[in-house]
Amino acid sequence: MLTLAIRRLMAALPSLVGVVIVTFLLTRALPGDPAAYFAGPAATVQAIEEVRQRLGLDQPLWVQFGNYIGDLVRGDFGTSLSTGQPVGFELATRLPASAELTLLGLLLAVVIAVPAGMVAATRPNGWFDQAVRVTATAGVSLPTFFTGLLLVYVFYYILGWAPAPLGRLDIFYTAPPHITGFYTLDALLIGDAETFLQALSQLVLPALTLGIFALAPLARITRGAMLEVLGSDYIRTARAAGLTPTRILIVYGFRNAILPVLTVLGMVLSFLLGANVLVEKVFAWPGIGSFAVEALVASDYAPVQGFVLTMAVLYVGLNLAIDLAYGLLDPRVRIES
Amino acid sequence: MSAASSTFLAHARHTLGGNPVTLVAACLAGLLILVALLAPWIAPYDPLATDPINKLQPPSASHWFGTDQLGRDVLSRVIAATRLDLAIAVASVALVFVCGTLAGVAAGYLGGWTDRIVGRLADTIMAFPLFVLAMGIVAALGNSVGNIVLATAVVNFPLYARIARAETSVRRTQGWVEAARLCGHSELSIVLTQLLPNLLPIMMVQVSLTLGYAILNAAGLSFIGLGVRPPTAEWGIMVAEGATYIISGEWWLALFPGLALMVAVLTFNLLGDGLRDLLDPRRRT
Amino acid sequence: MSAPPLLEVHDLAVSFSTRAGRVPVLEHVSFTLAKGETVAMVGESGSGKSVTAYAMLRLLDRAGRIDAGRVRFGGADLFALSDAEMADIRGREAAMIFQNPRAALNPTRRVGDQIGDVLRRHGAIPANQVRQRVLDLLDQVKIPDPARRANAYAFELSGGMCQRVMIALALACSPALLIADEPTTGLDVTTQAAVMATIRALAKDRRMATILITHDLALAAEQADRVIVMHAGHVVEDAPTAALFAAPRHPYTRALLRATPRTTGSLADLESIPGSLPTLTAPDLPPCRFAARCPGATAVCRREPLPRHRGDGRLVACHHPLEGAP
Ligand SMILES: Nc1ncnc2c1ncn2[C@@H]1O[C@H](COP(=O)(O)OP(=O)(O)OP(=O)(O)O)[C@@H](O)[C@H]1O
Ligand SMILES: [Mg+2]
């Protein structure tokens, strides 16, 4: 198992190198003169030259790349012009908000989509299957930011069930002490039920928006994988042995169908991390996505680049985790190593 | 040949007949394209003309989709936006169709270093969450419509390159390509006359599927303030502007452009699925 | 026959829905099987042998449908049982060994656990003895080092090993009926012999009735008390082994025998069967599905319903059955 983990890690390395190179190139591709940007709008020619030297922009490209790597290793992502804080610090403080939202969205999607896909596959072309299919196709076509707004309109404006879409907590509440950074979890850990409920009520709509988006591809692939597995010879063997339908569905069916589902989970996460930016904007969620969007609007590029790099590294890491899970679940991969 | 084409037609009729959804999608796609082409002539008002007295009017007989915060006619703006959004999507898909297919064919046909470089490039792009990469590209290259087109094309590149590569490397070793080679055709003419035409159908399915994604991507970028800028009418921006008003109950500002966006994406997705069924009945799910 | 037979298949008909419409795959399939008896079911690929077996155990996939017929097994009418009652019979009273054993085993579950699943399902033995029983079963089918193999996954085992695991799995609860669908195809000769010997010994020990589905006429001749010949979804002949090989009465059986190499006789005597199985979707399918390929076919064969004579313990479905020696 350890060798498998190491081998997967090595396989992820080129992706990581590619990501770093691309983000480096993006920093150098700034329209106009990067030094002028980083010096700020009111800078004199002399000030710009100073910045150029300080940032090493007068050096040859490969030296700059070396410096860039050095900065990254030290966790130095530059400074945000708009907040005046180091980008690394800003990202780190906002990451839990994004993570809490994305994870709950993914969880919702999996909890709904996987069983729905499984049930749909047991009666192909039945009414439930048709319903799942229509929902799945409609779901991928829904622009996340639009779904979010619709939910806000219905559940906040019309029904009044949800709180205003203005961040993680109502302003009358104070954030729970930082333990995990997830407000809901932290509130639970200190036993503060009221804050927990408040945080959860703020979280539900944005998480649902993300969940609806991720639901479609997951349900679709679960259904397809399950259909294929249920038509396979070993399911017939299990039936011929008289095993109960639930056991066949779970141990013989699901256990095998989950493998293709895991494979597309990577793609779903790609969607989800991207959609996260849009959802954070709709719900004024103080995560790294809305941080990047604010910076973009202010033409503040260091945070945007830090954000892109962070997301890409997170994504590579998540894919690695998926790969490892796959290895754990599929004996064919596990035993090869 | 005629027998083959007639069975294809029969199959098409069978598939479409058994699948009215694809037919509806095809009609809707035609309608969207028509609206996009005729936008300046069918829009009832100038999409940019403000009318502060009649601002934030709910839908009525004179303004079917209501008016926005500056009194502009939402219907006219949605129509104008159809033109812009489709143009962005078509341009980016055309770009990636050409570049991605060529790169994929080169990789599959030549193998070796070409294959490795194209593969690595595709892998590197895929290592990013795609929308985030598109954000990064537009942020770095500058906030313009052209860069939105470019960014959307880049994030779709791996898909095209991989499919073209896989199809090419399968076909390269098939009998009839060998036969053409033995008949003295040059490699280039084999690629042009034997491989590319055979790749077209499967690439067309991708075109339809990625058109939907391209629209979504472009609208998403404008929603967060990249690319298209106000007061230009564009679905993403219109939804973004309408977002402020939805919490005070003026739903029509965001709803209509949002619906238009959704219908457009759904149309191309359904059309793509239908085309895929037509091409490969076995993959039908 | 005095005692009622263990298994009685009567007038079974099965169709599949396909893109081209409903295909009548089986028609009027009838046969019986006594306790302890072994019958071989032979016929070209696609003649409906596996479908017959699946239909009997109600294992057809979704596209398949039983249109008519009755299957009585040990006093129960199998088609009248509830799904749960049927599941109680499967694996305990009637078990099946499948074609292509590797694909028939769950790729992500240890083979020992799969056998254990069957034992546990039917409550054959106390839970704490399951493991030991699994090892005994693997040992019985001559798998060396059962303790290690029980922990293996199907992809780690050879084809012959998978086949034996399948057999162990089917025999786990000592069924009264075993359907073995080409249990030896794809195995080398020594393994074939070993696998057949295993099945036979167990059949003898337990008075188990066996349906042996095979392409291999030599194997049928050697193992079976009786042979059922199938062609395009019809049972065309059903006779005691010796009688069938001595004097086939259906032209298709004769053709099959002539197409099979024998130790006596030279290769020059071999004949291939002309034509191929008819397309079952054809609108003008004649009542006798062999008519198009049959040297002795007449207008009657294409028009009149097929007679199914049964006499002196044998059945032949033909308007012009052959008489005497071939
Ligand atoms: N799921 C299915 N859908 C449609 N037709 C089917 C299906 N399963 C079997 N058939 C048809 O039923 C007929 C009989 O198939 P069957 O598998 O019983 O043949 P077989 O005698 O077992 O052949 P083999 O020796 O190759 O195993 C074939 O013509 C096949 O095309
Ligand atoms: Mg078979």
Features:
heterotrimer, A: 337 residues, MetI-like fold, 14 helices, 77% helix, C: 326 residues, alpha/beta, Rossmann fold, eight-stranded mixed sheet, globular, binds adenosine-5'-triphosphate, binds magnesium ion
Structure description:
- The complex is a heterotrimer of chains A (337), B (285) and C (326).
- Chain A is mainly alpha-helical.
- Chain A has a single domain, classed as MetI-like (MetI-like fold, Orthogonal Bundle).
- In chain A, helix 5 packs antiparallel against helix 6, helix 5 crosses helix 9 and helix 6 crosses helix 9.
- Chain A is globular, with a radius of gyration of 24 Å.
- Chain A starts with a helix and ends with a helix.
- The mean pLDDT of chain A is 85.
- With 285 residues, chain B is mostly helical.
- Chain B has a single domain, classed as Orthogonal Bundle (MetI-like fold).
- Chain B is 76% helix and 0% strand.
- In chain B, helix 2 crosses helix 10 and helix 8 packs antiparallel against helix 10.
- Chain B is elongated.
- In chain B, 48% of the residues are buried.
- The mean pLDDT of chain B is 82.
- With 326 residues, chain C is of the alpha/beta class.
- Helix content of chain C is 30%, strand content 23%.
- The longest helix of chain C is centred in the middle third of the chain and has 18 residues.
- Chain C is globular.
- The complex binds adenosine-5'-triphosphate and magnesium ion (MG).
- Adenosine-5'-triphosphate (ATP) binds next to strand 1, strand 2 and helix 1 of chain C.
Gyration radius of chain B, rounded: 22 Å
Low-confidence residue ranges of chain B: none
Strand share of the residues of chain B?
under 5%
Q: How does the overall form of chain B come out from the CA principal axes? A: elongated
CATH superfamily of chain B: MetI-like
Tell me, rounded to a whole number, the average pLDDT of chain A: 85
Largest sheet of chain A: none
